[in-house]
Amino acid sequence: MADPSSGVSGNSGSSSAQNAGNSQDTQAANETTEAQLSDAAEAVGAAPTPSLTQVNPAPVDLTLSPSTLSQLSAMQVSTPTLDFSSLTSLGGIPSGLSYADVAAAAATPSIQEVNAFSPTFGITGYNAANIDATKLGDISVNAGLAYNGVTETGAFDASLQARMGLEPPSVTAAAHFGYKADANAIGGINALSLDFTAGPFGTPADPTYGLAGNFSTNFTDVDKFTASAAANFNSNGFKDGNVAAEFTHDFSNTFSGTAKGTVNFNADTVTSVVGEGQLNYKGVDGATIGLTGRATYDAVTGQTSGFFGGRASWKF
């Protein structure tokens, strides 16, 4: 007869072993699941791997059948003929000009001078025929810039020059500006000029500075007035100067008269007064006849002197 306690003990050991096996299987399954979840998380957070898929497109047949080419060759295209006979003006503007008028018209060039500065250079005072007889003190070298410009109202000219003496070494500077109108307008400035000189520098002589200017205008169609003034200065100040005025009247196209007055003065007083009159006649073939009278009053000595003469010229 069997022992009851032995049967109970056998069942209990088998059950314990079975429970232990189930626990191990569950733990292994959990570890596997955890590993899969970890791998999935890493896959989600990982950088994507590009994938290139090669696509081979199917060829397209662009060839034309002979029948299609034959039909295209047989087609006719209607090209209209362009007719400009009804167009009488350019751009549709009713100006009265035709294309033929524009083509036959002479071209009118428009030239605008922008920069007309040019260098100047020259040597003066030497005897070209006999260089050995030339004195070094008579030779001077001139260098500078000159400008000539044209506008709608007139012409401008300007220059800047330096004169260099060789014996003794010296330099004299000169500047000039001039304007001349194309038309002699009444009441306007028809001509204007300004000149400045300074020197000589580098020699024992006292350099002087000169300033001169003049302008002319028309009072009427036959009356012209010109005025000028000049002044010279040195290291002590004002040295001397003069003012002049000239009036010209045209009696006819060939006969004219001029009256001119000049006053010379220095830093102390008026030194002299000069009056001058002229009559001029212009004939055919460039012939001219002129009469001149001049009177001078010397304010320093109180003496008066005069001159009267004539001149004649013609071309042959």
Description:
- The protein is an alpha+beta fold and 316 residues long.
- Helix content is 18%, strand content 45%.
- It contains three helices and twelve strands.
- A hairpin with a 5-residue loop joins β11 and β12.
- It is elongated, with a radius of gyration of 55 Å.
- The protein starts with a helix and ends with a strand.
Mean pLDDT rating: 81
**Unreliable stretches:** 1-12
Question: Distance between termini?
Answer: 184 Å
Number of helices: 3
> How do the strands of the widest beta sheet line up side by side?
1-2-3-4-5-6-7-8-9-10-11-12
Structural class by SSE content: alpha+beta
Overview features:
316 residues, alpha+beta, 12 strands, 45% strand, elongated
Short description:
The chain has three helices and twelve strands, in the order αααββββββββββββ.
Describe the SSE topology:
Layout: H1 4-45, H2 66-74, H3 99-104, E1 117-124, E2 140-150, E3 154-166, E4 169-181, E5 189-201, E6 208-218, E7 223-234, E8 237-250, E9 255-266, E10 270-282, E11 288-298, E12 304-313
Antiparallel strand pairs: 1-2, 2-3, 3-4, 4-5, 5-6, 6-7, 7-8, 8-9, 9-10, 10-11, 11-12
